[in-house]
Amino acid sequence: MIYSRSIPFVLFALFGTGLTQSVNGFNFNKPTGGPPGSYFAAGSSIPVTALQSAAATASTAVPDGTYPINRENGAQEVTIHSDWANFNQGAAYVWIADMDVDCDGIDYMCKEDADGLNQTNFGALAAYEVPFFVIPDRFGTQYAKQLPGNNIGAVICDGKMFYGVYGDSNGATPQVIGEASWLMARTCFPNDNLNGNNGHGDADVTYIIFTGNNSVLPSSALNTSYVTNFSILRSMGDRLVTSLAQNLGLVNGGSSSSIATTTAGSSPTGGF
Ligand SMILES: *[C@@H]1O[C@H](CO)[C@@H](O)[C@H](O)[C@H]1NC(C)=O
Ligand SMILES: *[C@@H]1O[C@H](CO)[C@@H](O)[C@H](O)[C@H]1NC(C)=O
Ligand SMILES: *[C@@H]1O[C@H](CO)[C@@H](O)[C@H](O)[C@H]1NC(C)=O
Ligand SMILES: *[C@@H]1O[C@H](CO)[C@@H](O)[C@H](O)[C@H]1NC(C)=O
């Protein structure tokens, strides 16, 4: 799979301009001083609205893949779908849920997070610096082969798309779906003052998690606590989402040979 793993670098060679965001993660590890959303936003060529609509029509339920969005009695339940899980490139699971705030990892003392853990599943991530999302632990365990950890995902929130990694799982009783890091949640909903005890309650956030080793953010871009190179996260995210959108007929193309001619690697939306 050397060829596939090299695609993001090829894309960068072709399209990379002055967009490189390699960072010292420590400098961004602050509640209100995290990386700007433009560092992990989808490129302007990505058909975000069409993908969101397509996600809403997914109908093949993952066995045992239905979870409540919170722990209250009678909570709304959400089902993970596998309609997109068998594509050659851009294969993904998808669901639509709310967004609770997770601070597990080195920022577990974040505001109002009473039950934070100092580790995440694959390290001790910095929730202020890393845009990560959380999946139910049972799902992660059942599909560990497809989801080895640090898989890239695309989150569509409030009309915008951001890339993150599968960094943690929820092991509450019952296990709950719809959760993302402090950084991801507060970037999605910047006006809502979200914190460890105040999430985005409406189940209107689309989560697309890419499967397989080719979707794992490499150690050149992520260490145990920090994203160290957001350019790699963005270019891989754009490539995966573009492949998915091609498979769904939402953009032109559809064969791997066309990947390099798409605008995947294009400028992120928003300023710096
Ligand atoms: C991870 O990278 C950051 C720089 O972004 C560095 O400060 C930190 O020491 C690294 N951590 C590990 C465990 O390598
Ligand atoms: C993390 O939490 C565990 C369990 O509470 C504790 O044993 C461990 O010492 C903590 N590690 C760090 C680095 O704080
Ligand atoms: C994914 O990578 C892991 C670790 O390198 C390896 O054990 C596994 O076989 C790989 N899976 C596939 C499907 O290639
Ligand atoms: C970050 O990744 C980009 C794209 O692969 C690369 O061009 C750049 O050299 C990387 N930066 C560092 C400091 O490794």
From TrEMBL:
One Gene Ontology cellular component: extracellular region
Coiled coil: none
Pfam families for this protein: Glyco_hydro_75
Keyword Nuclease in record: no
Molecular function per GO: chitosanase activity
Top-rank taxon: Eukaryota
GO biological process, one term: polysaccharide catabolic process
EC code(s) of this entry: 3.2.1.132
Protein name stated in the entry: Endo-chitosanase
Organism expressing this protein natively: Penicillium roqueforti (strain FM164)
